[in-house]
Amino acid sequence: MSTASSDTATDPAVPDGPTEASRRLRRPTLPDGVRPYLAPLLLYGVTKLVGLTVFVGLLDAADEYQKKNPRFGGGAHWWDVLATWDGWWYLQVAEKGYDPGPLVPLEPGGLFTVQQNSVAFFPLYPGLIRGVSEITGLGLYGSAMAVSVLASFVAAAGVYAVISTLAGARAGTIAAGLWALVPGAGVEWAVYSESVFVAIAAWCCYCVMKRHWVAAGLLAFLAGLNRPTSAALIGAVGLAAIVTLARPQSRREHGVAGPVYAMIAAPLGLLTYVTWVGLAAGDLTAYFTLQREGWAHYFDFGAYTLDVLGNTAIGRHDYLFAFSVPDLLAVQLVLALPFLIALMLRRKPPLVLVAYTLASVVAVLGTQQMFGNTGRYLLPVFPLLLAPAAAMSRLKWPSLTVFFATAAVASGWYAHFVIFELGIP
């Protein structure tokens, strides 16, 4: 028996491993760390494509966008609509840079008392647009869309990473799909900075959850160069770091240097840009003055939100920035917030998610701005998807397929057409 075994083992006719030809023909395999993200990214991408297709059909059916100003919801082609409103400003910054200086006063008596200026739009997103355009030759519009779409997939992967850590892979996949459907999701594939911000915010929160403090601090720093609402994320990172340092056990386990670094690095991006605008204008509060007097956006402790809710309840639109259809959808979303927050808190998520969510909601509801854009302003508050995704994870895939197919079609209207054509995103 031992002789037979030895003969078989040494027989040259019996291969002892894969041949060179078989190695060449073997299909490449994805790294194990990438495979879990395939399902959520596929669900996200297909859902977004369906919604975008419906949006294009509605644009053609309405037959209005070609008659509108290319800056304000119009254009020669349907895709031009995706670069209007704030998108026009981002492309201006990407092309020409900033023209900082003292704020220019307007004639008294109007809604706006200073001239609008591109410095109101933070530099990270237009900087990425310009960089991609220089490298690829896609042009500014093509580069802007490429950045937004790619960032949206990175954001969906981040949403999956956070939710799957807390509620399992199935819930994480569903959460990524839900992020494609939420009100305001139409700006994810448009010349808007939300996709970049959510990509940064989701992975920043994930890094805090995993105690990767250096990465969390760097991501919070980048967030501060992208949107002023990064203050909620920066505060959440700082609070999580403080709590980590305050507990002797976590301090011994994770050390001191990482949390301290995150606390210091997180606010530097936001502070640097706001300070630069102030120095260029000769007034350190210039950015906030521009937001208040050039765009009528400022924190009013919820007075404007209560005004809209009161008017809508009695069927009136006697308030600033009134847009009936977007506002009605926004009212429903605001009424759902306490329920969504309670369900999220019931699952006891990490402190960074709780702080980020609550600070973001307070900032949105406490600020005078386009009320119809509440869905867009809440788009970064992805932790609110935790409870719905966890509950839906108990459903079978046939039921989930029906839900996502129906909701994807509907999103072409409420998450795309409504904000771009019936309101102002």
TrEMBL record:
Protein name: Membrane protein
This protein's pathway: Glycolipid biosynthesis; glycosylphosphatidylinositol-anchor biosynthesis
Species name: Streptomyces humidus
Transmembrane segments: 37-59, 138-163, 169-191, 198-223, 229-246, 258-279, 319-344, 351-371, 402-424
UniProt keyword terms in alphabetical order: Endoplasmic reticulum, Glycosyltransferase, GPI-anchor biosynthesis, Membrane, Transferase, Transmembrane, Transmembrane helix
One GO process term, biological-process aspect: GPI anchor biosynthetic process
Membrane topology: Multi-pass membrane protein
Compartment(s): Endoplasmic reticulum membrane
PANTHER family in UniProt: GPI MANNOSYLTRANSFERASE 2
Entry GO CC: membrane
Annotated region described as Disordered, given as residue ranges: 1-28
Gene Ontology MF terms in the entry: alpha-1,6-mannosyltransferase activity; GPI mannosyltransferase activity
Key word Thylakoid present: no
